[in-house]
Amino acid sequence: MTEVQNVLRVGDVVILADLETGGFIAGDDVITSNLYVEEQVEFSASFSPHTIHSAAFVVVPRFQYAALRAIEEFVRKIHIPLQDMKNWSERIARLESWRENLSPEDSLYKELSHHIKAYQDEQATNELESRRTAGHPVSYGNVIQLRHCKSGKFLTQSKTRAKVNRLALDVSLSEEGNKGSWLKIIPTGRARSDGDYVRYG
To answer: Quick one: CA dihedral 124, 150, 34, 188, positive or negative?
Structure first.
């Protein structure tokens, strides 16, 4: 069977550029979640590796976040301070350390253990799905996510208004991602429809 050419696939690296006016989206800092637009600069493969790395996103499948949301709510409910932890791997380590002070018979111990295991299982499932679907074609109607190559964070739409355009929602980089990281590929015009491959070139 002949492989379909010029089709976007899970695992491909993309640049989000405006072909009409020039400019592209980039994130230049691993510490912050800010994105910016390089305006009126047509993207070129001759740019420095630093610039290309800042503007590159890898296509990944839609991840699940139910267990992450549940453990976030649980932590807020029992008031465990985790604000200084920059990612959930560090937060889980602190929760496991905090759990050691509880009795295994304590209901709080059992509930915390349940949430930690559910989160870890969800993370493992997401990574397994990412490996399983690597190389699969992306079609219109699919939901994907974009992971920033430089920071490893996810392109994510928030529920707050953007500072530049108050009619738009803010878009930034999220450490773990959430439902705001889900991007549905919508066809435009009559030439494309749901189920058609997303092509380039």
So the answer is: negative
How many other C-beta atoms lie within 10 A of the C-beta of residue 90? 12
List pLDDT tens digits, range 140-190.
999 999 999 988 999 999 888 877 777 778 888 998 899 999 999 999 878
Q: Which helix (H) or strand (E) holds 23?
A: strand 23-26
The Cβ-side half-sphere exposure at 130, using a 13 Å CA radius, reads 16
Phi, then psi, of 52 in degrees rounded to 5: -65, -45
173 neighbors 33 (Cβ within 8 angstroms): yes
How many other β-carbons are positioned within 10 Å of the β-carbon of residue 59? 23
Claim to verify: residue 151 and residue 114 sit in the same structural domain:
no
Structural domain that includes position 125? 66-130
